[in-house]
Amino acid sequence: MTVDPIYVSNCLLVSCYTIALWLISIKNKRLQGMRLLAWAYSAAFIAIVIGAVGVPRSHWFLYAIVPELLLVSFTLLHYCFLSFVRRKPRRPWGWMALLVFGFAGFSYYGMDVQRYLDRSVFIAALLAFQTGLSAYVLLRYPDRGIRMPARTMAVVYLAFSLRSVGRCVWILHYHTMPESMPGWWQPISGVAAYLVLNAFTPLGYLWIATTRLQDELESLSSTDPLTGALNRRAFDEKGHAEVERSQRYDLPMSVVAIDIDRFKQLNDSRGHAGGDRVLVMLADTMRSLLRSTDHLGRLGGDEFILLLPETGMTGARELAERLRERVDATGVEFRGEHIKVHASFGVATMEAALLTNPDANAWETLLQRADAALYCAKEGGRNRVESAPDAVAMR
């Protein structure tokens, strides 16, 4: 009896991956998609073991279960990809049940040569559809953070889908299995294609998972967990970078300091839950009026600040006034009560084209000017916009 080394390699690879994936999924229950991936490789492993034993065609159920398990494995992999691109798929059990019972009935009625070829075309067509759909999802829907690993995996799955299409065409045209023909097509059409796919899928999964995890860690380290605004460290980094850009290209920039009026009283009367609801509302309201190039930061407590690149005093004051009006009109619903919210705004601008004196601390000076303007707004009666009296030298 001749043992195919590619088949043995595929069996060993899938068995090792199956054990490793289950161990990882047990220890890391929150790892997105890992449990689906472990189930997918378990189904593939059972199919390979049954195929290695060698089941005669007279045992129709065992003979049919191998391709059914492969189809179930690819279906679970597809839903694993869907979970990564942050779509909300339905549970795969209905689709897998249709595959199992439908294909079992298809295999029951005769196992002659023609029926065997029809069955092989059916399997290849389903695999082509499933892997092609997975490739489409990975190409079409991933967010920017995982786009590169997702597209790499999509290329691999698209190649496997085209291989399955070619298998269908071959069987329909030559009325024989590709494996029976000598030459270069034989290893590509057989187990070698599964070996490449089985070897790459967990690696691609880990690539996507580590990329997503790195993005989430960077986001957690730079944003406020309650409002999603930049924290002080990240906001200062953005500010220094914008100052350098403004100096280099003679562009204006502005900052707007925002403070909720009488927030301590609101916190004392409604509790921290009510205060948090107001902070989230304020952050969401400001984000809705900002450009993609603007930045929102939370410096602590109820104090927020906006960074507005390429914006002069007039534009910054107009935006601050629109924000004040929007906040004043919105309010917050909390425990059946409508909470009226007011905020004060202080605007400071760095007019690059008008200033010639260098200032090594331009960013800190600009923030101080904005704080001074905010103080004037508070002293002037609150719920108003005030601007710093003069620009900040930065060149």
Account of the protein in words:
Strands 2-3-1-6-7 form a five-stranded mixed β-sheet, sandwiched between helices. The chain has a two-stranded antiparallel sheet with strand order 4-5. α1 (5-27) packs antiparallel against α2 (34-53) and α2 runs antiparallel to α3 (60-84). It folds into two domains: 5-222, Rhopdopsin 7-helix transmembrane proteins (Up-down Bundle), CATH 1.20.1070; 232-387, Reverse transcriptase/Diguanylate cyclase domain (Alpha-Beta Plaits, 2-Layer Sandwich), CATH 3.30.70.270. The chain contains twelve helices and seven strands. With 395 residues, it is α+β, with helices and mostly antiparallel strands. Residues 391-395 have low confidence and may be disordered.
Per the principal axes of the C-alpha atoms, what is the gross shape? Answer: elongated
SS field, number of helical segments: 12
Secondary structure: helix percent: 55-70%
| Span of the ends, CA to CA | 83 Å
Strand order of the largest sheet: 2-3-1-6-7
Secondary structure category: alpha+beta
Q: Radius of gyration, rounded?
A: 31 Å
Identify the CATH class of the largest domain: Mainly Alpha
